[in-house]
Design goal:
Layout (H helix, E strand, L loop, with lengths): L13 E3 L5 E3 H5 L4 E6 L4 H16 L6 E6 L3 H11 L6 E3 L5 H6 L6 E5 L5 E6 L1 E2 H15 L16 E2 L2
Parallel strand pairs: 3-4, 4-5
Antiparallel strand pairs: 1-2, 3-6, 6-7, 8-9
């Protein structure tokens, strides 16, 4: 299988978060787009990206879009990861064991982002950490919610513009 690309239909799924609450993709798409972030706790690029994902969620707190982090580790590892990166305002879904959902999306690296439009089509993918991609996603979300775009990843914040996952 190959990583899903822009234009592909997003596979439907339901996954629990670390607290046991279930999230169903197609139920939420009725309200707006969903940004899926596939990640692993041991990935240094994921640790770099997570604060930027939190900035993105905080910049556009509207309920008309969602950010879901799809973790590929056991729940205790996810909880330890949160202790290292700090609390986040988006759900951390657990795709473990078996990586059933990750196998359907087939991310090439961690993190890999999939921006899913309300019609169920993947509109954008991004692998690794890319300031440019994060800012493009910010523009897309701003357009959707009717807000001015926020620069999520400034060029001079001390982090590299790109880091492969």
């Amino acid at each position: 299988m190959a990583t899903l690309e822009a234009g592909a239909p997003a596979p439907e799924f339901a996954l629990p978060d670390v607290a046991g609450q279930w999230y169903i993709l197609f139920d939420v798409l009725r309200r707006g787009p969903v940004l899926l972030a596939f990640w692993k706790t041991g990935c240094a690029t994921t640790r770099l990206a997570f604060p930027y994902l939190e900035r993105l969620r905080q910049a556009y707190p509207q309920e008309s879009w969602q950010l879901w982090a799809v973790g590929q580790d056991p729940k205790p590892d996810v909880e330890r990861f949160l202790g290292r990166v700090g609390a986040v305002s988006f759900p951390l879904l657990v795709d473990y064991p078996g990586y059933v959902i990750a196998r359907r999306y087939d991310p090439v690296a961690t993190p890999t982002l999939f921006y899913v439009e309300p019609n169920g089509t993947i509109a954008m993918t991004a692998a690794g950490f890319s300031k440019q991609d994060l800012n493009v996603l910010s523009e897309r979300i701003a357009t959707h919610v009717g807000a001015r775009p926020v620069v999520i990843a400034p060029p001079d914040d001390g982090n590299p513009p790109f880091k492969p996952g």
